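Model it.
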Amino acid sequence: MASSALRKIFCAFLPLAFGDAPADAASQSGWGMKAILAVLFLVFAASQAEASCKASASRSWGQHKIEASASGPNCANAVLTLVVRADDNYAVWTKTYVADQLMNFSDSPAANAAAMKAKLKDWISGDGFMKTADQLQTSGEFPFTPAGDLNPGTMEDAVKNRSPVFCFIQGSESGQCLAEIWDGEVVELGVQAFPG
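Modeled.
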């Protein structure tokens, strides 16, 4: 996409910068300076396009769709946004993170938008986490801790009904877990610890 835009800029700028090479020696030095400026402009534009970071990924989750996006001057300093949407595209839950504060983004920062897209896809995959509420363990070395403001009955219902769970890395030592309960309502169920 960036390369296509650069080609258009180049094609529009080339005739203005170069035109026909002048025959007289006095004008040729000015023509040469235009050529150098044109090359410098294109190098700068290419570096700016390469440096910016915009990427997204999505997947289905039960009755919902999970969307992850990244935007920033570069991928190492991108802002990440997670959105859970209902089937009518209404956003029922959303949260924003900074890439360099999340383990899977800070340990080896994405070099470009394509690499960031792959990281976003992995982030929302749920790999390495439990898939239903009844699988969550509240004891042991790396326990699941229900959210402090969660009604105890909500957790009990989620476990009893084996509610679908979506967990994702939210820092360097834990994952946030959401659950689909009752009529497709999404709640923050709690936090799953893992080795940092």
